[in-house]
Design brief:
Elements: H1 21-33, E1 36-37, H2 49-60, H3 73-87, E2 97-100, H4 102-114, E3 120-125, H5 129-137, E4 141-146, H6 156-162, E5 167-173, H7 185-198, E6 201-205, E7 231-236, E8 249-252, H8 258-269, H9 274-286, H10 292-313, E9 326-330, H11 339-350, E10 352-353, E11 355-356, E12 369-373, H12 378-389
Parallel strand pairs: 1-10, 3-4, 3-5, 5-6, 6-7
Antiparallel strand pairs: 2-8, 7-8, 9-12, 11-12
Helix pairs in contact: 1-11, 2-9, 3-9, 4-5, 4-8, 10-12
The structure holds pyridoxal-5'-phosphate.
Keywords: Aminotransferase, Pyridoxal phosphate, Transferase
GO molecular function, one term: transaminase activity
Family: Belongs to the class-I pyridoxal-phosphate-dependent aminotransferase family.
Length: 391
C-alpha cells in the first residue's frame, strides 16, 4: 500500500468548482509584500464597546454551553424588534426568527431545508461567489442572469427568460457585493412578480443593509405584497458591528419553514456561538435609538468618497456605489492579460491588494474589473490612497 502522501487526493467531482483561490491568493501575496489589503471583505474597524462587553460578560458569567438551537430568546426578541423598526417586517420571535452562524450559515441551512439536488437557483451577475458556490456544493445548479452595466440595472426580461420548470428559487443580495447595487422597490417588484408567477422562493441576503449612501433606500423584499410567505430574509451583525469572526447572523422566514431550516442548522452548527449571541443582543438593544447607525453610514460614506476620488484620479472607472463597502472599478489602465494579472500588477506597483473582478462573474467575464474594499481602518485606507495616488 502506498504511503498516504502518495495517494492522489480523491475529492468530490464538484470540489474544484467551489475553491475560492483568487481572493485567498491575493491576501497571501499581499501579506508577503507587506501591502494594504483592500481585497478581503472584512471590516476591521473596532467593534462597538457595548457589543464587546456583552460577549465578555457572557463568558465571565459562564454562558458557555449550547443555547437553544434557534438562539437565545432575548436575542430573537431584539431581532424581531429591529426587523419591525428598520425593515417593516413583523416576525414572531418564537416561530419566525432563527439565529444562525452568520449569514453564511443561514443560507446553507435554508438551501438544505428547502431545495433538492438538481434544482435550479437564479443569481444576478456580478454575484457573491460564496452564494453560487454554496448552491453548487449542494448539487443544485446556478443559473446566472447578468445585470446591465454600468449601473447594474435589472433586466426583467432576462430574468423571465432564465426560468425553467426546474427553477425553485432566486437569490438576491441587496445592497450587493461587489457592485454596491441597491435594488429599487420597482426592481424588487419585478422579481416578486416572477417569483409569484412561478411559485419560487426568494432568498435575500441583506447583510449590508446599514451601508446605504446618498438617496438610496434599502427595501426588504418580504414587505412587498404577497412576498412574506415565500421570502427568506437573511442578515447578521458581522458587518454592522465589525465582528465577522464571531459568526452571528439570523434569518426570518414563514413559521412553517423555520423549524426545518433550524433543524439543518442544528445538524451543521448546533447553535451560534453563545457569547457572540449575548454581544449581538447588547448591540441591538443598547445601540437602538442612538446615533450608531447614522454614524456608521457617514463614516463609510466618507471612506467611499475618499477611495472613489483617488481611484478616479488614478485613471480607474470608479462610480460611487449606493451601498455596501466595495468599489467595483474598471481597471483596464492596469496592465495584465486578465483581472488576476491586473490585481498582481497593482499589488507589485502600489502595495495595494484588490480582488480580480472575474471572481464575481462566469468564466471569461469581469477581466477588466477590480474590487476594492473601503470598510477599513482609516490609517490603512489612507496608506492605500497614498500609494494609489502615485500610480
Ligand atoms: C454578500 C455577503 N453575504 C454574506 C457575507 C458573510 O456574512 P457572515 O459573516 O454573516 O456569514 C458576506 C461577507 O463578505 C457577504 O459579502
Amino acid at each position: 500500500m502506498p504511503a498516504r502522501s502518495q495517494v492522489p487526493a480523491r475529492l468530490s467531482h464538484i470540489a474544484p468548482a467551489v475553491v475560492q483561490s483568487e481572493i485567498r491568493a491575493m491576501s497571501v501575496a499581499c501579506d508577503a509584500a507587506g501591502g494594504v489589503n483592500l481585497a478581503q471583505g472584512i471590516c476591521d474597524t473596532p467593534a462597538p464597546t457595548v457589543v464587546q462587553q456583552g460577549a465578555i460578560d457572557a463568558i465571565l458569567g459562564g454562558r458557555n454551553i449550547y443555547t437553544r438551537l434557534d438562539g437565545i430568546a432575548a436575542l430573537r426578541d431584539a431581532i424581531a424588534a429591529k426587523l419591525k423598526e428598520h425593515n417593516g417586517i413583523v416576525a414572531d420571535p418564537e416561530k419566525e426568527v432563527l439565529v444562525t452562524n452568520g449569514a453564511t450559515g443561514a443560507l446553507y441551512a435554508t438551501l438544505l431545508a428547502l431545495l433538492n439536488p438538481g434544482d435550479e437557483v437564479i443569481f444576478f451577475e456580478p454575484f457573491y461567489g460564496y452564494h453560487v458556490s454554496t448552491v453548487v456544493s449542494l448539487r443544485m445548479s446556478a443559473t446566472i442572469v447578468p445585470l446591465t452595466p454600468p449601473d447594474w440595472k435589472l433586466d426583467a426580461q432576462a430574468l423571465r427568460d432564465a426560468i425553467t420548470d426546474r427553477t425553485r428559487a432566486i437569490i438576491i443580495n441587496t445592497p450587493a457585493n461587489p457592485c454596491g447595487k441597491v435594488y429599487s422597490r420597482e426592481e424588487l417588484q419585478q422579481i416578486a412578480d416572477v417569483a409569484q408567477e412561478h411559485d419560487l422562493y426568494v432568498i435575500v441576503d441583506e447583510i449590508y443593509e446599514y451601508f446605504i449612501y446618498d438617496d438610496a433606500k434599502h427595501v426588504s423584499m418580504a414587505t412587498l405584497p404577497g412576498m412574506r410567505e415565500r421570502t427568506i430574509t437573511i442578515s447578521g451583525v458581522s458587518k454592522t458591528f465589525s465582528v465577522t469572526g464571531w459568526r452571528i447572523g439570523y434569518l426570518t422566514a414563514p413559521a412553517d419553514l423555520v423549524p426545518a431550516i433550524g433543524y439543518f442548522h442544528d445538524l451543521v452548527y448546533i447553535c451560534p456561538p453563545s457569547p457572540g449571541q449575548y454581544g449581538a443582543l447588547a448591540g441591538l438593544t443598547q445601540l437602538a435609538g442612538t446615533s450608531f447607525y447614522d454614524d456608521l453610514k457617514s463614516e463609510h460614506l466618507r471612506k467611499r468618497d475618499q477611495l472613489c476620488e483617488v481611484l478616479t484620479s488614478a485613471g480607474f472607472g470608479a462610480p460611487k456605489p449606493q451601498g455596501a463597502y466595495y468599489i467595483f472599478a474598471e481597471a483596464s489602465r492596469i496592465p495584465g492579460a486578465n483581472a488576476a494579472e491586473r490585481a498582481r500588477t497593482l499589488l507589485r506597483e502600489t502595495g495595494v491588494a484588490a480582488v480580480a473582478g472575474s471572481a464575481f462573474f462566469r468564466e471569461g467575464r469581469g477581466e477588466t474589473m477590480l474590487r476594492f474594499c473601503f470598510g477599513k481602518q482609516q490609517a490603512d485606507l489612507d496608506r492605500a490612497c497614498e500609494a494609489l495616488r502615485k500610480l
